[in-house]
Amino acid sequence: MKAPAFQFYVMDWTTDLDDHPLEIEGAWIRICCKLWRSEKRGELSKSVTQWSRILRVDEKKTREILDYISKEKIGDVTPCYILEIE
Q: Suppose 45 and one of 55, 78, 82, 86 were both cysteines; which one would form an S-S bond, judging by CB atoms 3.0 to 4.6 Å apart?
């Protein structure tokens, strides 16, 4: 059984995400929670439609968010939208 919680380092979080929009910070914490609960912890493959439901935005916005996360090296996003925590 997986642990019901993960460690959250406030200093690391704020340092790493201070220069990014709140929208990205919110999306990233939702993604981190999904990655934590995934079968292979830290990695998860979803379609754009599935990520859209997770992020609660349309597919266009989802692509923008995932592209930003990849471009800014917040997380490792493959072209088929597999996300990994670095």
A: 82
